[in-house]
Write a structure and sequence with these properties.
GO terms for molecular function: 4 iron, 4 sulfur cluster binding; oxidoreductase activity. The protein has 294 residues and is of the alpha/beta class. It is 22% helix and 21% strand. The chain has 6 helices and 13 strands. The strands form 3 sheets. A 5-stranded mixed β-sheet has the order 1-2-3-4-5, with helices on one face. The longest helix is centred in the middle third of the chain and has 15 residues. The two termini are 35 Å apart.
């Protein structure tokens, strides 16, 4: 692992030795290209710089994360600890994905302030949901209802607002082989990794998009919104995780064509890593699986 970390650092992919575990930002993947009420991409860079510039935020737990939703309510449904969502009257502060009603003038500054308050009061809490009183983070607010989570990633041919095209490709079980990654890089187009185990290939003309689709689909990327691969996911499982009771990814793949009413996530232990906010979670018992949620 040390060799991998050194290689990643030398490639310039670890801009902060002290804050790397807390630079957890998720933004609406299609923002600025297709739909949404605002382009939140600039906020990502501003927030990242602000996080790295604040020494006290190095004390955040590695599970704490920030959400930037451009108004389509895709990221909000994931329940970020702190975040903003754009509404017709501008961005508002969200806690655990729920609207506080507080309008935000400076996104990065506001989110840093709330995160610092969390550091001050958190004691042993890793996430905002673990606080005894969420109101301590923002006094005098009444949280709105939770946003219904997005359960399927945008896949296929996605027209952009500027007449170009984004290709949405689901990555089965979130495993991207090196050969496929090299093919993606060869397209020389902006790539966006989504929270739903998929990648967006952006800013393509029609001819390039068509050629890319013809090459990438046979390599295993999924461009069909009706594919059963969009209905299953899994944690790392055995042999990659010592806590796992089974090779959950192999088991998930074998269940691909088993009829199901919704999304199924396979996990190797009670930690249930990578579980989406909605759907069925199945935990390995050593002799099969039992339902952990709902």
């Amino acid at each position: 692992m040390a060799a991998v970390a050194d290689a990643v650092a030398k490639a310039g992919l670890l801009p902060s030795a002290t804050h790397e575990r807390v630079r957890n930002i998720v933004a609406s993947p299609l923002s600025g290209r297709a739909g949404g009420l605002a382009d939140v991409r600039a906020w990502v860079g501003e927030l990242d710089a602000a996080i790295r510039a604040e020494p006290r935020l190095a004390e955040l737990g590695g599970r704490f994360w920030f959400g930037l939703d451009d108004g389509r309510a895709d990221v909000s449904g994931l329940g970020a600890d702190v975040g903003v969502q754009v509404f017709p009257d501008g961005p508002r502060l969200l806690l655990t994905g729920r609207d506080t009603g507080v309008r935000v003038a400076d996104v990065a500054e506001t989110l840093i302030e709330v995160a610092l308050r969390f550091v001050k009061i958190r004691e042993t809490a890793w996430r905002v949901t673990e606080l005894a009183d969420i109101g301590e983070l923002q006094s005098g607010v009444e949280l709105g209802p939770s946003v219904r989570p997005v359960t399927k990633t945008p896949v296929g041919w996605i027209p952009q607002d500027d007449s170009r095209v984004t290709l949405g490709a689901a990555v089965p079980l979130g495993v991207l082989p090196a050969r496929v990654a090299e093919c993606l890089a060869a397209i020389e187009a902006p790539l966006v990794i989504t929270p739903w185990r998929s990648v967006l290939i952006c800013d393509l003309d029609d001819a390039t998009a068509d050629a890319a689709l013809r090459v990438l689909a046979p390599l295993g990327l999924v461009f069909d919104e009706n594919s059963p691969w969009l209905n299953i996911s899994a944690c790392t499982g055995s042999p990659g995780c010592a806590h796992s009771a089974a090779d959950v990814r192999a088991d998930a793949a074998r269940s691909l064509n088993v009829e199901s009413a919704g999304h199924r996530h396979f996990v190797g232990c009670e930690r249930a890593c990578g579980s989406p906010p909605a759907g069925e979670v199945l935990v390995a018992t050593g002799g099969g699986y039992r339902r952990l949620r709902p």
